[in-house]
């Protein structure tokens, strides 16, 4: 008898504690949108605009809860939470999908994209669009690409030439390409969740990092990094994702409205990202916290030459076709 009661209680507990992955049929569909950056960043603003437009257009049908700053889930557990139905929307950086597809590593290759316009062109073309659907069999559906910005190298010492980075420990996102990039400089890469970057820089656990201006400023990384070199050596971009079981269980008419809203938000995020990053660059400059080092052509070429061997190391995993498609979107002349 006791055993039976225990079994019934355990079953009831399992039902109540395991969230259903499909969109609920009674009452409003709840979309929990978790991310790791501050509200005042391109992604943070995009999440809030998504919530606002859903409230305006799908009131009573869909409600959106936004959890910024790793307050619900962080780098270590957000993808599992998406698969388990504990969260319905994420926008991780493209560097964080390495366990699901190797093709997205193309975005981490140093000095591949000249600027965000080039990234935009790649994402609008066939290969870029194809990558959005490259993880459906792994329980991740890509809904859109959102930009942040080009990454800058920061450190506790001035970095003018690649040799200046030798021996330093740099925080990286969990990406084999980024690890190889710092190995190429004879520096040490150290994977850390975004939520731990400030502390790791402050305590000296790592001495440097690579981030776009918006992430540096919104997380006050400049207050613990006296030197920032304007390398623009890589891109930090996001994929807005959902769980396909959840997404395709949303009634068709509602889903169409959501997709329209996502298009609108994507346009807004991507149009404003560069400006937002430049504004944060100027705020850092005005704060006087850090010296911003700009590179002349020769210095920039030295960084490019030092990091470029990484391309060949990953060509097989990424696919020569994807890399070729990414290279042709650049319009500036280069060596
Ligand atoms: C990082 O970990 O540095 C970034 O992916 C954080 C973010 O979401 O912009």
Adjacency order of strands in the biggest sheet: 7-6-8-5-9-11
The biggest beta sheet is recorded as: 6 strands, mixed
Span from first to last CA?
Answer: 79 Å
Small-molecule binders here are:
(2S)-2-hydroxybutanedioic acid
Count of helix runs: 13
Give a structural overview:
InterPro entries: DctP_fam (IPR018389), TRAP_DctP (IPR004682), TRAP_DctP_sf (IPR038404). Residues 1-22 form the signal peptide. Belongs to the bacterial solute-binding protein 7 family. The protein is an alpha/beta fold. It has a domain at 152-235 and 280-327: 3-Layer(aba) Sandwich (D-Maltodextrin-Binding Protein, domain 2), CATH 3.40.190. The protein is built from 13 helices and eleven strands. Helix 2 (42-57) links the parallel strand 1 and strand 2 (62-67). Helix 2 packs antiparallel against helix 10. The model is unreliable at 5-18 (pLDDT under 50). The structure holds (2S)-2-hydroxybutanedioic acid (LMR).
